[in-house]
């Protein structure tokens, strides 16, 4: 491919594909326009070609940017605005934030499994009602939750209370929640492949098609651009400082 040199066209194409323009995009446009042009195509491809609705795409971006593994405020503000424009309700958004908060549970379960294996309780006392709740609410995590309940049934009880009752009414469907969880666990910022494997199987069982699951997985990859955004911003600042220093020296 030939390098792209029309910077005005690159900027217009980027805004059309990504819906925003930031100081870091301006810095990259000046330093490496071809990077930005090809990134717009790469980052925009999953959202523009996959089967998920614009509303669902933006809700997935909200989850990824709000996640404690990323915490990208500028992106979160952009995608929350775009989600509202695409028809997302407040209940949808806070349902996503509820799932973001539950993201850390999988690591607790994996670590508790290791503790259970190393020092299993001699006589675990798990109330029958708690066993039933575990099987109903989180069947894909039931074995690990039962092992955790054998160590600390009170913790599992309050965890299930939050999982059951912390989400707003009239938010996402069960299938939509699964897609949010899949995006969060599959993203490189979390990379929980055990949970990803289970969620893929559950999604297929619920009737989600492969293209929907793949799109939820793909949307997380280009969060890595925020490393380049940081680098471009720092580079521009250093270049500006060097230029100012040179000007002062010449002026002196």
Describe the model.
- With 252 residues, the protein is mainly α.
- Helices cover 74% and strands 0% of the residues.
- The chain contains 14 helices and no strands.
- The longest helix is centred in the C-terminal third of the chain and has 27 residues, at 225-251.
- It is elongated, with a radius of gyration of 23 Å.
Quick take:
With 252 residues, this protein is mostly helical. 74% of the residues lie in helices and 0% in strands.
**What is the mean pLDDT?**
91
The termini sit apart by 47 Å
Strand content: under 5%
Class by SSE composition:
mainly alpha
Count of DSSP E strands?
0
How many helix segments? Answer: 14
Major sheet attributes: none
Oligomer: single chain
Rough outline: elongated
Poorly predicted residue ranges? none
How do the SSEs run, as a string of H and E?
Answer: HHHHHHHHHHHHHH
Radius of gyration: 23 Å
Helix proportion range: over 70%
Break the fold down into its secondary structure elements and pairings.
Blueprint: H1 7-18, H2 23-31, H3 33-49, H4 54-66, H5 73-85, H6 90-102, H7 105-118, H8 128-137, H9 142-151, H10 153-165, H11 174-186, H12 193-206, H13 210-218, H14 225-251
Helix pairs in contact: 1-3, 2-3, 2-14, 4-5, 4-6, 4-11, 6-11, 7-9, 8-9, 8-10, 9-10, 11-12, 11-13
List keywords for this structure.
252 residues, mainly alpha, 0% strand, elongated
């Amino acid at each position: 491919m030939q390098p792209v040199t029309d910077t005005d066209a690159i900027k217009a194409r980027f805004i059309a594909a990504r819906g925003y323009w930031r100081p870091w995009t301006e810095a990259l446009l000046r330093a490496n326009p071809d990077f930005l042009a090809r990134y717009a195509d790469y980052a925009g491809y999953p959202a523009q070609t996959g089967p998920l609705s614009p509303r669902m795409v933006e809700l997935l971006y909200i989850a990824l940017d709000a996640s404690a593994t990323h915490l990208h405020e500028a992106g979160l503000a952009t995608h929350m605005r775009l989600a509202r424009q695409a028809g997302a309700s407040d209940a949808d958004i806070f349902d996503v934030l509820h799932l973001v908060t539950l993201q850390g549970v999988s690591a607790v379960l994996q670590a508790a499994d290791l503790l259970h294996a190393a020092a299993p309780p001699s006589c675990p006392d798990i109330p029958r009602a708690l066993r039933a709740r575990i099987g109903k609410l989180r069947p894909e995590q039931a074995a690990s939750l039962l092992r955790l309940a054998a160590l600390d049934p009170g913790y599992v009880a309050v965890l299930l209370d939050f999982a059951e009752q912390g989400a707003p009414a009239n938010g996402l469907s069960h299938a939509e929640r699964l897609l949010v969880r899949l995006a969060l666990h599959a993203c490189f910022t979390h990379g929980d492949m055990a949970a990803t494997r289970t969620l893929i199987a559950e999604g297929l069982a619920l009737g989600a098609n492969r293209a929907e699951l793949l799109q939820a997985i793909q949307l997380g990859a280009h969060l890595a651009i925020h490393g380049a955004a940081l680098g471009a911003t720092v580079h521009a600042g250093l270049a500006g400082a060097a230029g100012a220093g040179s000007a002062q020296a010449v002026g002196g």
